[in-house]
């Protein structure tokens, strides 16, 4: 697939007709005029659109344009947590956070934003109950301590946790907890109708949505943050990278996402184009299916030792990303465990562990999507050869969607032996990444069989991360959790994910240090 893509792109560049070149010159002139419609090409669009229904990159790319959080995290710089729909907040006690809501905010349907909308967004009926309307989404695991919302007055709410929660402010900045319009949700004829036309307070409102085609957004002229600088914002589903790049060069798109490392030089050679983005706070990783009888701890450790991660980063990413020392990021500030060891490459030791393991040469199905993550297929193919050198037979199977990746056998065991995932740092604290991804409500424990004394210890330490207000105690717990991950790995982490976009150079838009592609007035001007 990758070779086909490169050949197509090279042919496009070599044989582009004079008419197309003339069109390119005209496009440069046209770029100086005001853009009324912004076209953005992405690999995939989410399904459905509604907040909290899933936790995918496809959703995160677009939804910040439609919805707002009560509290916002500064993804561009170092301001940390900032007011959004909540103008201010304060702790009443260790379990209670009181927020003063912004007055005069209008939803896309003209309704005024009030405390009722906050309470409905977090209600048992919609989201947190036993049978929520959005379904039993893993997004609820991002706030296992949530208890309830109390309305004090139309512009004051209190969010109460089941236990001490030092990270309530952090959690309120997550995309899973963006605010929706209560009346519009309740009056929708069906959940499907709502999902295709949700109502938020963000800078753009939904005009038309077709998951496999395009998401058409119109400027919300009453947006509390100021009217957007573009009238129409269209996210187009363009799975093939070659087509996204060709469309950018032709002027069909102003911005594209998911540019491969090997094609960055091609874009940089174009005078009217520019690259945006780089490493983000996200770890590319796998999850092991530990219910497979051969997937014991010795094999899992061997699979890590057999990987020359430095070679992968150097050759497949031109050194543009980095290998982390555990699922552990310097952005954690005083919670960053800088002394935690980096993963080793030791082929001889890997071979010894394979011999000690329960593995007898079985084919290990490795399920991935077609470059859902940058350069994913090339990386997977390279790792398969590295595992082969250690005596491990891994077979890649490229699937069309996540439903196929996560398909179950008749007895409820997943087909895959391992699959790719991203362990994303959602709010600058290990509780928002390592603990969020490997707690009891998430796949490794819930469906993939990660069990044992070390896992029990990990779960108890995670509770410390969630509830302790003593930062030294939290640091100690996190440091031990990193050790447990290495000693009894539920998966493998490889390197920091990249989010590389490209744009027309004249476009005044900046990529965030996350996958979110935001075009509100704070981040796009003309």
Give keywords:
3 domains; 526 residues; alpha+beta; 4-stranded antiparallel beta sheet; D-Maltodextrin-Binding Protein, domain 2; Dipeptide-binding Protein, domain 1; disordered N terminus
Report on the structure:
The chain has 526 residues and is of the alpha+beta class. It folds into three domains: 2-44 and 202-254 and 507-525, D-Maltodextrin-Binding Protein, domain 2, CATH 3.40.190; 71-187, Dipeptide-binding Protein, domain 1, CATH 3.90.76; 279-498, Roll (Dipeptide-binding Protein, domain 3). It has 19 helices and 18 strands. The chain has helices at residues 2-15, 18-30, 57-63, 115-121, 124-128, 168-172, 182-187, 191-196, 241-250, 264-268, 297-305, 309-316, 347-356, 376-389, 402-405, 434-438, 443-446, 453-467, 471-487; strands at residues 37-42, 71-73, 81-83, 86-93, 96-101, 146-153, 156-161, 204-210, 214-219, 232-237, 255-256, 273-288, 364-369, 394-399, 418-424, 491-504, 508-509, 524-525. The chain has a ten-stranded mixed β-sheet, with helices on both faces. Helix 11 runs antiparallel to helix 13. The radius of gyration is 24 Å and the shape is globular. The two termini are 38 Å apart. Residues 1-31 have low confidence and may be disordered.
């Amino acid at each position: 697939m990758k070779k086909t893509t490169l050949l197509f792109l090279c042919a496009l560049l070599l044989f582009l007709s004079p008419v197309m070149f003339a069109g390119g010159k005209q496009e440069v002139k046209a770029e100086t005029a005001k853009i009324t419609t912004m076209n953005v090409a992405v690999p995939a669009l989410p399904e459905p659109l509604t907040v909290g229904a899933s936790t995918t990159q496809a959703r995160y790319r677009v939804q910040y344009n439609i919805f707002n959080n009560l509290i916002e995290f500064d993804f561009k710089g170092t301001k940390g947590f900032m007011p959004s729909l909540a103008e201010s907040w304060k702790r009443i006690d260790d379990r209670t956070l009181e927020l003063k809501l912004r007055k005069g905010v209008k939803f896309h349907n003209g309704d005024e934003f009030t405390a009722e909308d906050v309470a409905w967004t977090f209600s048992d009926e919609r989201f947190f109950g036993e049978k929520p309307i959005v379904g039993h989404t893993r997004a609820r695991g991002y706030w296992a301590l949530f208890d309830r919302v109390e309305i004090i007055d139309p512009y004051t709410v209190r969010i109460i946790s089941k236990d001490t929660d030092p990270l309530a402010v952090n959690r309120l900045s997550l995309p899973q907890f963006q605010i929706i319009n209560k009346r519009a949700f309740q009056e929708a004829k069906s959940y499907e109708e709502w999902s295709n036309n949700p109502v938020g307070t963000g800078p753009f409102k939904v005009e038309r949505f077709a998951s496999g085609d395009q998401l058409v957004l119109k400027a919300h002229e009453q947006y509390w943050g100021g009217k957007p600088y573009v009238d129409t914002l269209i996210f187009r589903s363009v799975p093939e990278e070659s087509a996204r790049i060709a469309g950018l060069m032709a002027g069909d798109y102003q911005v594209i996402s998911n540019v491969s490392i090997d094609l960055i030089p091609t874009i940089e050679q174009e005078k009217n184009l520019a690259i945006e983005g780089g490493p983000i706070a996200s770890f590319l990783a796998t999850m092991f299916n530990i219910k497979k009888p051969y997937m014991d701890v010795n094999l899992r450790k061997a699979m890590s030792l057999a990987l020359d991660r430095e070679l992968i980063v150097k050759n497949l990413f031109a050194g543009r990303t980095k290998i982390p020392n555990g699922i552990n990021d310097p952005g954690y500030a005083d919670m960053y465990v800088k002394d935690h060891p980096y993963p080793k490459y030791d082929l001889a030791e890997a071979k010894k562990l394979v011999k000690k393991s329960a593995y007898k040469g079985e084919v290990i199905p490795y399920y991935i999507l077609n470059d859902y993550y940058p350069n994913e297929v090339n990386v997977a193919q390279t790792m398969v050869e590295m595992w082969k050198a250690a005596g491990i037979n891994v077979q890649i199977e490229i699937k069309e969607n996540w439903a196929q990746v996560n398909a179950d056998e008749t007895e409820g065991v997943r087909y895959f032996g391992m699959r790719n995932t991203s362990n994303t740092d959602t709010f600058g604290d290990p509780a928002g990444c390592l603990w969020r991804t490997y707690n009891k409500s998430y796949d490794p424990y819930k469906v993939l069989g990660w069990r044992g004394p070390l896992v029990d210890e990990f779960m108890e330490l995670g509770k410390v991360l969630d509830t302790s207000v003593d930062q030294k105690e939290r640091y100690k717990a996190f440091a031990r959790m990193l050790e447990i991950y290495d000693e009894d790995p539920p998966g493998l982490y490889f390197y920091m994910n990249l989010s590389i976009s490209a744009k027309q150079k004249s476009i005044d838009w900046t990529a965030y240090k996350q996958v979110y592609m935001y075009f509100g007035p704070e981040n796009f001007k003309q």
